[in-house]
Amino acid sequence: MDDIEVEAVAEADLTDPVFIEGLPGVGNVGKLAVEHLLEEFEEATLVRRIYADVFPPQVSLDDGVAELTHAEVHAVETPGDGPDLLLLTGDHQAQSNEGHYHLTDAFLDVAEEFGAERLFALGGVPTGELVDEPSVLGGVTDESMRETLEDAGVEFREDEPAGGIVGVSGLLLGLGGRRGFEAACLMGETSGYLVDPQSAQAVIEVLQDLLEFSVDFEALEDRAEEMKEVAAKIQEMQQQQQQNLPSDDDLRYIG
Amino acid sequence: MDDIEVEAVAEADLTDPVFIEGLPGVGNVGKLAVEHLLEEFEEATLVRRIYADVFPPQVSLDDGVAELTHAEVHAVETPGDGPDLLLLTGDHQAQSNEGHYHLTDAFLDVAEEFGAERLFALGGVPTGELVDEPSVLGGVTDESMRETLEDAGVEFREDEPAGGIVGVSGLLLGLGGRRGFEAACLMGETSGYLVDPQSAQAVIEVLQDLLEFSVDFEALEDRAEEMKEVAAKIQEMQQQQQQNLPSDDDLRYIG
Amino acid sequence: MDDIEVEAVAEADLTDPVFIEGLPGVGNVGKLAVEHLLEEFEEATLVRRIYADVFPPQVSLDDGVAELTHAEVHAVETPGDGPDLLLLTGDHQAQSNEGHYHLTDAFLDVAEEFGAERLFALGGVPTGELVDEPSVLGGVTDESMRETLEDAGVEFREDEPAGGIVGVSGLLLGLGGRRGFEAACLMGETSGYLVDPQSAQAVIEVLQDLLEFSVDFEALEDRAEEMKEVAAKIQEMQQQQQQNLPSDDDLRYIG
Amino acid sequence: MDDIEVEAVAEADLTDPVFIEGLPGVGNVGKLAVEHLLEEFEEATLVRRIYADVFPPQVSLDDGVAELTHAEVHAVETPGDGPDLLLLTGDHQAQSNEGHYHLTDAFLDVAEEFGAERLFALGGVPTGELVDEPSVLGGVTDESMRETLEDAGVEFREDEPAGGIVGVSGLLLGLGGRRGFEAACLMGETSGYLVDPQSAQAVIEVLQDLLEFSVDFEALEDRAEEMKEVAAKIQEMQQQQQQNLPSDDDLRYIG
């Protein structure tokens, strides 16, 4: 196998497609969002598999049948007036520093091959606390893109996220911008502690507005409901633990 | 030295050989199984040594004579009606993520060179507790292979092993399947804490059935007996420690 | 993207330019120094951006606009009689052992391209305690350079810094010397615990003397003042903690 | 710079030279031994410097003059009847798994270039306790070499050292043997806790016998004496600490 191998599974004739990435990351927001789109656009076609020696040396088993770790690109011909979509997802980020660069370049090759000129990298931005109504923060390759995104509800905050954007999402903007793509990162606010379907929904809602498509959210809302129950239980347990701890008053006489 | 070097030690004229891998791993099940086959098929011929810079930078000493870390492939012309065998074993897995991919590709080259079209990757699957009668779990490159394996006693469980199959065993299926090999992984249940000859025997018994050969198990059974004694002593020590700990009753009045 | 990519942003016609490096390091002394020079020489021109897959896979955001991690070289035509300057800075060192070598080679290519024959690598040397009047220690590629530097106040101490000079600064001397550059490292003493603008100033003062330019230090002095207040607060907190600890006298009866 | 660069500093016309390696390792035995030989054979000529991007990215300073990390090969025309010597030493092992392989290959290239057909890799073998009269253990590329070494006092013990020989010393045998060199590893017993000049002397004494040269040991003996004092002080401190611990009797009533 070459270091990176792009397998052509099928072809698709797309009109002005937009490339959307959702690999694992904070709160799994990006991956949840792209997987939800794949479920809702039932006619999505798997067009490319990307194998790479910077993915973990691993197969997953589906009913005992092994599948080598890879990323996948699906093509979606959207029903409305909006552009067609190329949806990238997978189970892993690259396992090395250099790997992130080379893998992102391969993803951009696929985007280019299908004629995509616009990219969206989806992800989460950790807030450190549970978020009731997650905002969606943005990053862009060109200042001219900000206004359209702001109109769709995306917020641009000074120095946020603090460390910039890392991994494939960051490099899709960094390398993509240098290769002439118009790329944006949409980051849903999320606690950073739990998988966050609600944040994924917030990100998709922005995409809906920007790309003129419309999907149902019932599945995501159900999962968000489940996660809220999980979060409530965790909070309850934490409060009980705190009640069992000595209060500040109790500690007053110590040291 | 090249990054990977395959040394041709001898040739062998094999009929429809099956390639069987047993490198170190959980419970050393795969390595024990292949080493047992090598001991029982006394006429095994060492045909290839595989050296690689992703193996540890190390020589082992045999009576003071140094041997560079490598993997070995032996050819076995089986006496019965079953296919001939190519047995791969060694003391190490690759030391890097990419190394697993490149090493596995080199192993597949050897399999191809000798005309093998079928592969078995042998290993263990950790259960976290001592296992009396280890089952053998399976993974395959193609669904059509399941029935034959199930008839030989292999179990296919949904979502097991949970993390898929990692290392060279996983990639023999992942990369092997992509190169057209019919590959299966046979994983003996094992505690994960101890070297497990009994699990190795269970795996070989499946192979015997599938490949129509027959070997003696006395050596493995002796080693399994020894390991059972070791396990019993460990359990005894753990029980003594637990008796010295305060019981739940004792703890009732605390915090 | 290639492993390392040098982007030509602009050209500059420089007279006998001197290449000065200030990447992140101990006390951020080198980076602070070069950034201060860039602020004071207002007419600095960005001439090269250096991208590399050994930088972190990351973009920073400036008002929401993404910028791929890179190092930058600015050209400065100095007003006085001194040589022109090429100023290298950036937010990151290489992330791998080999990366430091390859990145430094790329920096030396840029220096060569602009006709630089002399290099200064700026950095800090950790003393482990707060320093009132930081000395500047030196390292050179050729003994003949020592006298000039000593005349400018640089100290050469036997076996200091103890571990030699690591990272890009070290390799600019190590690889630069082998390529025929006359290279020196100027290391301002610094505690090693805090960002140190005062040490950066000490380093620039040496450069001023050597390269016959003159810059204002108000901005650095203001930042140094702030850092002194931070240091004073930390010392105060430490003293309070120590008062709460048992004294040696109290401990006399123990053990 | 290439990944590995061999700089020809001088040439030497040697008769049947023997290549001897002493890089840092357990007890620094190998490095001490080769450095002692370099001091005693005053007419040693530096013939090759080996630079590599798998060495740390670092320069050392000698009176302020920077020297890029490298390994060195000196040629020694011995006065007696014995063979001439090529002495390899340096401050570092490779920093990566693959690096050990590639670096060793480069060292073997140098040995070959000078016509060496025999190699000695010098090192220490850790015993875990202070050793009064260190034995020298051996490893060889070919069984035929054992008798000569045994006659010179080298011991070959079954399964010792337990983990084989790692790093460049191991690979000089592993890769060297494959390239047709007659290579041996001489490992002086050493505690593993301290730099061990006495063990280095034991190793050199074997070499003296094998290669018919003779050196003075005063410098090594002086250093060994110093290290014995250091070891004695450490033992004294440990004994005092033990006396301050509660005895088993004191503990009898606890738990």
UniProtKB/TrEMBL annotation, chains A, B, C, D:
InterPro entries: MJ1210-like (IPR004426), Proteasome_assmbl_chaperone_2 (IPR019151), PSMG2_sf (IPR038389). Keywords: Proteasome. It comes from the Archaea. The keyword Heme does not apply. Transmembrane segments: none annotated. Residues 236-255 are annotated as: Disordered. GO terms for cellular component: proteasome complex. It holds the Pfam family PAC2. PANTHER family: 3-ISOPROPYLMALATE DEHYDRATASE, 3-ISOPROPYLMALATE DEHYDRATASE-RELATED. This is Proteasome assembly chaperone family protein. It comes from Haloferax marinum.
